[in-house]
């Protein structure tokens, strides 16, 4: 750890991993309700479980991003964080807000816009925390060295915080509500978060492979250019059937097809950098997660996104288990795995110890990735049958769902593997103090 | 190649292009806003009752089980066309009675079947929810869903 203030990141990562645990356990519970629908039905209905599952995911990913920023910005800007106190204050506000939101969901107090169910006071808390963060991190960067990585990271974080304003805009007209809702939801995950992802991936590649900064940064600008050029108008693929004009079917189909490109570029970037890199960095687990994140993001966000993005296809698949399959693999690859890559890289440094528990960490990668891939496949099959029976043949929803039981059972099994992997990951980061398998000698030590 | 396409050129393309696409997107969004209010949802007035119905819909987090115009959770049936499916789209009183009877029968308690919770909803709110669902159903959704099954 070069700068003392980087230590703030440790607490962000700790909070993020705690919520990660809650998120996957919530997911497992929801998966079990699909298998055994009467389970907890009177005490904890499905809609509340799902709110906890999705909200804790979003918050822990954001905590991971904030923590990553506090970790990497001091190194990039070559100075301490502007104010460590503000960073802790921001974390406390976010945690109080999160606990408040989960508590109020459990007693039935919540909003009703998907993913934005937080009570108003929590939304304001998030806004205040975001402002504190932006001030803190921007003042750090402005006073120090400016790099493409910090430029892109800050641009992504500024834009995502600004877009949060749409969380407060809820028109009475349902179609307008939906259109503006996507300004947060789509423009987060398919535009601004991609900037954050590219910046963090660029930083990890710089550290892990030792490739020239000049090369990394040129790649980064090309990646984020393709992300925004495709992702902004790609919002159109959500505007097919909600009351918006018909021209979105063409704009959405064309530009969201291009949305595959930045994910392909990020995957190529990661592999080319590792190929070109001269450094043999000892943290193999972080490298595995970095390569894994960019690869699974390409399949989950890129390939599975394209699968149902053309309007002629989406007319039939919209709102089926196909969407659920895509959602799970895309979030896992692009944002979960990337955050875990950053944790894997930073935690040994933050805890100031050499053993990385890499064997357990890498085992957790394969458990989680294998489980998530299996879940994606079975949900895709379920969605294909659902699309045919419901949208082509015209059978009623519940009649069709009754035919999909086997797939939901397999999905639960896949989910259990993911939960095991997640708990193993958390365990390997916090508990184990020695390596399970002794590593061979390192030829050229990295930093 | 690397001499012509330098890092600063890549950066400028990124900034310039992004501003262009944001401008196009903002213009199309403004046009879509007008299309929604003037055409797509103009078939039924947006009354206070419909507004109350939307509030009831949100307060009970219906979206985290059902889909509405295909968006939401995938645990329970599509409700963007439920009034058409029930054949009560042009019959406000029938729509209310159907919805009220359905909600009163939940949770069904049938073993092995997904359970819809019991919701505390007054008669005024139930009528509003019914009108909200009729209002949503009349939206021009480019002929989606493909059939009444939703």
Automatic annotation (TrEMBL), chain B:
Family annotation (SUPFAM superfamilies): Cytochrome c
One Pfam family linked to the record: Cytochrom_C
PROSITE patterns, per the entry: CYTC (PS51007)
GO molecular function, one term: heme binding
Protein name per UniProt: Nitric-oxide reductase
């Amino acid at each position: 750890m070069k700068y003392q203030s980087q230590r703030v990141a440790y607490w962000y990562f700790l909070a993020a991993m705690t919520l990660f645990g809650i998120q996957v356990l919530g997911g497992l519970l929801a998966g079990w309700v699909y298998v055994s629908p009467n389970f907890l039905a009177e005490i904890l209905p499905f809609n509340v479980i799902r709110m906890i599952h999705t909200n804790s995911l979003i918050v822990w990913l954001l905590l991971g991003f904030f923590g990553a920023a506090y970790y990497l910005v001091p190194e990039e800007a070559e100075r301490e964080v502007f104010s460590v106190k503000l960073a802790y204050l921001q974390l406390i506000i976010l945690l109080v807000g999160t606990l408040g939101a989960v508590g109020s969901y459990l007693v039935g107090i919540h909003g009703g816009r998907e993913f934005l169910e937080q009570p108003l006071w929590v939304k304001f808390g998030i806004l205040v925390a975001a402002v504190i963060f932006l001030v803190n991190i921007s003042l750090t960067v402005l006073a120090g060295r400016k790099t493409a990585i910090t430029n892109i990271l800050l641009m992504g974080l500024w834009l995502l915080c600004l877009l949060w304003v749409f969380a407060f805009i809820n028109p009475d007209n349902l179609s307008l509500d939906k259109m503006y809702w996507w300004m947060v939801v789509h423009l987060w995950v398919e535009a601004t978060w991609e900037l954050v992802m590219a910046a963090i991936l660029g930083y990890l590649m710089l550290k892990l492979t030792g490739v020239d900064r000049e090369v990394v940064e040129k790649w980064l600008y090309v990646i984020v250019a393709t992300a925004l050029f495709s992702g902004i108008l790609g919002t159109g693929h959500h505007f097919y059937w909600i009351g918006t004009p018909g021209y979105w079917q063409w704009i959405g189909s064309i530009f969201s097809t291009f949305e595959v490109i930045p994910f392909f570029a990020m995957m190529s970037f990661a592999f080319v950098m590792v190929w070109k890199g001269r450094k043999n960095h000892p943290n193999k687990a972080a490298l595995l997660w970095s390569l894994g994140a960019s690869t699974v993001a390409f399949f989950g966000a890129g390939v599975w996104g394209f699968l149902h993005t053309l309007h002629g296809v989406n007319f039939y698949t919209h709102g089926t288990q196909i969407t659920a399959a895509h959602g799970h693999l895309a979030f896992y690859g692009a944002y979960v795995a990337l955050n875990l890559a950053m944790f894997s890289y930073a935690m040994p440094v933050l805890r100031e110890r050499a053993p990385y528990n890499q064997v357990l960490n890498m085992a957790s990668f394969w458990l989680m990735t294998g489980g998530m891939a299996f879940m994606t496949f079975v949900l895709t099959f379920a969605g294909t049958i659902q699309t045919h029976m419901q949208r082509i043949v015209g059978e009623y929803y519940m009649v069709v769902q009754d035919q999909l039981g086997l797939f939901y059972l397999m999905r639960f099994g896949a989910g259990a593997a993911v939960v095991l992997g997640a708990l193993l990951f958390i365990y390997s980061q916090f508990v184990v103090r020695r390596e399970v398998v002794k590593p061979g000698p390192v030829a050229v030590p990295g930093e | 190649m690397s001499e012509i396409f330098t890092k600063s050129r890549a950066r400028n393309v990124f900034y310039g292009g992004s501003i262009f696409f944001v401008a196009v997107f903002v213009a199309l969004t403004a046009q879509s806003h007008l299309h929604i209010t003037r055409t797509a949802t103009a078939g039924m007035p947006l009354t206070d009752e419909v507004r109350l119905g939307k509030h009831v819909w949100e307060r009970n987090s219906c979206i985290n089980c059902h889909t509405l115009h295909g968006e939401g959770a995938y645990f329970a049936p599509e409700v963007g066309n439920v009034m058409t499916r029930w054949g009560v789209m042009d019959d406000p009183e029938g729509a209310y009675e159907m919805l009220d009877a359905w909600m009163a029968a939940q949770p069904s308690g049938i073993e092995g079947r997904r359970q819809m919770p019991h919701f505390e909803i007054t008669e005024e709110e139930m009528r509003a929810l019914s009108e909200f669902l009729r209002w949503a159903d009349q939206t021009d959704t480019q002929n989606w869903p493909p059939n009444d099954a939703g």
